[in-house]
Structure to design on (217 residues):
């Protein structure tokens, strides 16, 4: 039985283009594609078979969008959520990731990055579009430099920093092992050590923490 992908876009024409694109890329071969132009319908489309929710929040205020995410993930906590927005306001991006989303696509996302984001998130990765990531880095760099003196970068070994950089690029343990010429067991050991040092429980929180504290370039 197929799992499903849910797409919300408040503009019917934009929604039809998104659905057409997913069909052309063959997603309908593996997933049922559900859709809505009404935010109130989204919660009722979510079920245990829902693998991914693509939520275009243009037209919703941040409180409404966060409420949709909360209600949707309450119905299926295992579902992946990608936010699509013309705004890359850092504090809003952080709020969404705090709620448990796995991807954020900003104003300058093109169809290639859209496809890449969906693929990476369905593979279990966190994905932030290049423009939104740049906005987050700019925000971090504009914070008083003194604040960053207290960041725990020095607590990481050189190899742990290497692993952290690749985690933030969205690579899996196997890919990191191949890139660094070490075993998967060693990668997982470094990952656990990093999380223990920063008191973090999962990779999405680790990526968020690393970006917020300028631990990766």
């Amino acid at each position: 039985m197929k799992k499903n992908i849910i797409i919300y876009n408040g503009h019917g024409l934009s929604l039809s283009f998104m659905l057409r694109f997913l069909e052309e890329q063959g997603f309908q071969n593996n997933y049922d594609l559900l859709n809505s132009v009404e935010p109130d319908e989204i919660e009722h489309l979510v079920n245990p078979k829902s693998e991914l929710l693509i939520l275009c929040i243009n037209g919703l205020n941040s409180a409404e969008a966060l409420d949709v995410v909360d209600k949707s993930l309450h119905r299926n906590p295992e579902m992946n959520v990608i936010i699509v927005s013309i705004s890359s306001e850092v504090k809003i991006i952080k709020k969404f990731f705090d709620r448990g989303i796995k991807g954020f696509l900003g104003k300058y996302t093109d169809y290639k990055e859209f496809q890449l984001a969906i693929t990476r998130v369905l593979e279990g990765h966190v994905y932030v579009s290049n423009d939104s990531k740049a906005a987050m880095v700019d925000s971090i760099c504009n914070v008083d430099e003194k604040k960053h003196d207290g960041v725990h970068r020095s607590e990481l070994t050189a190899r742990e920093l290497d692993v952290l950089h690749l985690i933030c690029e969205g690579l899996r343990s196997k890919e990191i092992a191949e890139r660094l010429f070490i075993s998967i067991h060693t990668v997982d050991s470094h990952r656990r050590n990093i999380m223990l040092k920063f008191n973090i429980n999962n990779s999405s929180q680790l990526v968020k923490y690393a970006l917020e504290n300028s631990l990766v370039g």
